[in-house]
Design brief:
about 525 residues, alpha+beta, Jelly Rolls, Outer Surface Protein A, domain 3, 3 domains, ten-stranded mixed β-sheet, three-stranded antiparallel β-sheet, 12 helices, disordered N terminus
Length: about 525
């Protein structure tokens, strides 16, 4: 693949000598080739990779079901997530995607396999979801229409959504957007939830049902990376690259743009998705879509909302400056008398006091800030983790995971003689690797944050779920993380006899671990 960069500065890291300190994930190479047996690849422009199946065998994995990935017992949850992601972007290899496409280029895969996403979601499934749940217009479902002359108009009634209403809207040429299908559909919940083990950030979804000869939204960009999975029918897409490097990778979604405004933009993809195809649209790329003679249903899986390096650094800004203020007496001194005469943005004839009285102190403080930031990155990652665990989807537990945890399996009877007792010889393990995290309020106060009891509805996750633990239990928690996904006997946690059992009881009672007798 030709990795020569464009004039927009997207992913342009300069000469090799200038980015030797950059993670390999962000380095652009010139010798990488996307050659995949049974597929035709095309690089029509700098911002697009097109892959079309020719002779490759169609997928034989069968319809999408919950627990499609990780069929082998005790598979690491991150490996399951990697398998799910690889399935989504196949035939592109996962590592190749993140090294050469992610947040750089549009990916279009024409699989010519209409059953590839079968079972994930359907238009009939949308009706059932509405019938079985209390979905609200504006909160869960949007009804919209778009035309090139008048732009987008929203036609949401007030109150609960009913199935027959949706049928009427579609017949009238309206598009239906479900804002959070993962909250009500188990298959989409499962896919989003397991991908969180890879992204370490909230993974959400939208579904869009658009009738024939219609469009549902105006050209715009999103603040997330979008994976568009075509489930039913066909949809015609246009994607434009950002105007320049300054506007790439935005933190907020855009307003709606008119067709006239898009006339001078850099169109990088212009094509049709059919059932089983995928289109990856990087964060900040403009896009719009419409249908022809067929209706269309697609689901968009969205990743990486506000998990940038800037957010990482910003998360500890107050702590960094508080530390510098405490460590440097000069930082607490008042600005010199007459400092307003020493500088400003206006083009006035300021005195020379800026370089003499202000900048020496500022430069000294900036040196301290740089070092303090470096020392604080571990804390910053924990802060990002806390935000993730507060908002993340809860795990979808397999029947076995429910049976061996406090959550309880099927056919659990009120008077069954199967009370779980934690003993030193029982074996335990975390249910997920990234369902919990050990953090510290201070050196003497550890605690666990987790997502095991979060709601599937994002707006309901307003507070962190935490578990208090004692400092003497930390080694045992670290042992469970280190040995995951292997089972470990309670007696081998490394905290002492009584503490080992006490820790296991705390983790079990909060739903974080499974417990079993040693297999014979």
């Amino acid at each position: 693949m030709d990795d020569s960069e464009d004039d927009y500065g997207l992913g342009d890291l300069g000469d090799e000598d200038e980015y030797t300190d950059i993670s390999p994930m962000f380095q652009m190479t010139t010798d990488y080739k996307f050659k995949i047996d049974g597929y035709r690849t095309a690089k029509e422009n700098t911002f697009l990779l097109k892959i079309e199946r020719t002779t490759a065998t169609k997928s034989r994995s069968g319809p999408f079901t919950t627990f499609k990935f990780g069929q082998i017992p005790d598979t690491h949850s991150v490996q399951i997530a990697m398998d799910a992601f690889s399935w989504m972007v196949a035939p592109v290899e996962r590592d190749g995607f993140f090294s050469h496409l992610f947040q750089r280029r549009v990916l279009y895969v024409a699989r010519r396999d209409k059953n590839y996403f079968k079972g994930l979601f359907s238009s009939d499934g949308l009706l059932r979801m509405v019938q079985e749940n209390d979905l609200q217009y504006g909160t869960n479902i949007n009804v919209a229409h778009y035309d090139r002359e008048g732009g987008r108009t929203t036609h949401n009634p007030i109150g609960r959504v009913f199935a027959h209403q949706l049928k009427t809207f579609v017949k009238a040429g309206m598009s239906l957007q479900c804002i959070n299908p993962q909250s009500y559909n188990d298959e989409i919940w499962y896919l989003c939830e397991i991908l969180q083990e890879l992204t370490n950030s909230f993974v959400g979804a939208n579904t869009y049902l658009t009738p024939a000869n219609s469009a549902g939204f105006a050209p715009h960009w999103d603040e997330v990376d979008a994976f568009i999975l075509q489930l039913e029918g066909k949809k015609y897409w246009r994607v434009w690259a950002p105007a320049d490097g300054d506007s790439a990778l935005p933190d907020e979604s855009s307003r709606n743009f008119s067709e006239k405004e898009m006339a001078d933009k850099n169109l990088v993809f212009d094509g049709t998705l059919e059932e089983g195809d995928i289109l990856y649209v990087p964060r900040g790329f403009y896009h719009s879509a419409s249908t022809g003679k067929d209706h269309s249903l697609h689901v968009t899986i969205s990743l990486c909302h506000n998990v940038t390096f800037a957010h990482l650094m910003k998360s500890i800004s107050n702590e960094v400056w508080d530390s510098v203020r405490q460590a440097r007496l000069v930082s607490r001194r008042s600005l010199p008398p007459g400092f307003l005469e020493m500088g400003g943005v206006a083009g006035l004839d300021y005195e020379e006091g800026l370089n003499e009285h202000i900048m020496p102190v500022v430069n000294t403080m900036l040196e301290d800030v740089t070092e303090t930031y470096r020392e604080g990155i571990a804390s910053a990652i924990d802060k990002m983790a806390q935000e993730f665990f507060k908002t993340a989807l809860p795990p979808m537990l397999t029947p076995e995971e429910r049976k061996l945890s406090i959550h309880g399996g099927e056919n659990l009877g009120m008077f069954d003689e199967n009370e779980v007792k934690v003993t030193r010889m029982k074996e335990i393990r975390f249910i997920r690797h990234h369902a919990q995290r050990l953090v510290f309020e201070n050196e003497e106060t550890p605690f666990i944050i987790h997502r095991m009891s979060n709601s599937r509805i994002l707006s309901e996750n307003t507070e962190q779920k935490t578990v208090a633990v004692e400092l003497k239990m930390v080694d045992g928690i670290i042992t469970l993380f280190r040995d995951y996904p292997q089972w470990i006997k309670v007696k081998d946690l490394g905290c002492g006899k009584q503490v080992n059992v006490a820790l296991a009881e705390i983790l079990y009672n909060n739903g974080l671990i499974m417990i079993r007798d040693k297999p014979i």
